[in-house]
Design a protein that fits this description.
Elements: E1 5-15, H1 18-26, H2 31-36, E2 39-50, E3 55-59, H3 66-73, E4 81-86, E5 89-90, H4 96-105, E6 107-110, H5 122-126, H6 128-133, H7 137-150, H8 166-179, E7 184-188, H9 196-213, E8 216-221, H10 224-230, E9 233-238, E10 241-246, H11 248-253, H12 258-263, H13 275-278, H14 301-309, E11 315-318, E12 324-328, H15 330-338, H16 350-353
Parallel strand pairs: 3-8, 3-9, 6-7, 7-8
Antiparallel strand pairs: 1-2, 1-4, 4-5, 9-10, 11-12
Keywords: ATP-binding, Nucleotide-binding, Transport
Organism: Streptomyces prunicolor
Pfam families: ABC_tran
């Protein structure tokens, strides 16, 4: 599958002689050396690709460069070096007018602060992106109403923004982005200003919408639990660089360095890990009864614990062809729950590392 969005060796440098600064970075200079010369390297050699329909989360602490990176993806900031490709089109090569057309029709942005017009109704706020596109009034109000209904705001169309709670105002911002039917949504700390319960509700809303809309989404956050919950793939940034990219399980099970390891210490692993990341693939005879209740590689960790509690032996993990690909002894589950620093051996399918074992369901 071809990528919907690609970043190729992106750099963003603020200050004097940015092109020279990029060359120095390529030659091995670090951020602090440039800062001493009055130059700030906000993003350094960032590369990734995002498949259609994927939620790609960029996370990092304040000052890591994640918001600057996001603004280069839709041309709000021009890269000092590197390219952004959207459906194969080089956005960095477009003129201002062409770039505005792309932003108006193909890329929508949802900001941290709701940015609603106080003198416009909820429906008119949701229709604003369509107004920019030049869509006739009747059509844009109809589409805005449909987007508001998708976001759980049916019945609030004629209200004013100050009559809505913070969570509801953020839903209007999301509806405004969805109404344009853009292929790509850029979400910059979109839920960070919300209370924890409302924030989780908005995460649920986004995941529910994604099930049907299948948008390509770049989501910026400093909250690791939010990243783990939303991201199909996650990029971890530090000091302007992407230090690791992978699934939530990749990052939890195989952190790239000590920085990532320290970052994930407080994550509730039981909400992220699945059978594939904890199973033992070193199969040695009858270690599990495959005639009893079994799991699949995608079985969530919490559900795996419940299955294990009902059995007197290890849980068999079967793939879609009912072939045994691993087992999960109870003591392995206990180890994962009790030792936050436990790192399992990377999983290798028996078909890659040994004879295929077929189980009969």
């Amino acid at each position: 599958m071809s990528a919907r969005l690609e970043a190729e060796h992106l750099y963003k440098v603020f200050g004097r002689r940015p092109d020279q600064a990029v060359e120095r970075l390529r030659e091995g200079a670090d951020r602090e050396e440039l800062r001493a010369d009055g130059t700030t390297a906000a993003v350094i050699d960032a590369s990734f690709s995002i498949a259609p329909g994927q939620i790609f989360v960029v996370m990092g602490l304040s000052g890591s460069g994640k918001s600057t990176l996001l603004r280069m993806l839709n041309g709000l900031l021009e890269p000092t070096a590197g390219r952004v490709l959207f459906d194969g089109q080089d956005l960095t090569a477009l003129g201002d007018r062409e770039l505005r057309e792309v932003r108006a029709h193909k890329i929508s942005m949802v900001f941290q602060h709701f940015a609603l017009f106080p003198h416009r109704s909820v429906r008119e706020n949701a229709a604003y992106g369509l107004e920019v596109q030049g869509v006739p009034r009747a059509e844009r109000l109809k589409r805005a109403g449909e987007a508001l209904a998708l976001c759980g705001l049916a019945g609030w169309e004629d209200s004013w923004p100050d009559e809505l709670s913070g969570g509801m105002q953020q839903r209007v911002g999301l509806a405004r982005a969805l109404a344009t039917d853009a292929d790509l949504l850029l979400m910059d700390e979109s839920f960070s200003a919300l209370d924890p319960l409302i924030r989780r509700d908005m995460q649920d809303q986004l995941l529910e919408l994604q099930q049907s809309l299948k948008k390509t989404i770049v989501f910026i956050t400093h909250d690791l639990n939010e990243a783990m919950r939303l991201g199909d793939r996650i990029a971890v940034m530090r000091d302007g660089r992407i230090v690791q990219t992978g699934t939530a399980e990749d990052i939890l099970v195989r952190p790239a360095d000590d920085y990532v390891s320290s970052f994930i210490q407080d994550v509730d692993r039981s909400r992220v890990l699945t059978a594939s990341s904890v199973m033992d693939t070193d199969l040695r005879g009858d270690e599990a009864d495959c005639a009893c209740e079994t799991a699949t590689p995608d079985t969530p960790f919490n559900e795996l614990c419940a299955i294990s509690a009902r059995l007197t032996h290890a849980v068999a993990v079967l793939d879609k062809d009912h072939e045994l690909v691993g087992v999960v002894p109870r003591q392995r589950l206990v180890a994962f729950l009790g030792d936050e620093q436990h790192e399992p051996t990377p999983c290798v399918s028996p078909r890659e590392g040994g004879e295929k074992v077929t189980a009969h369901a």
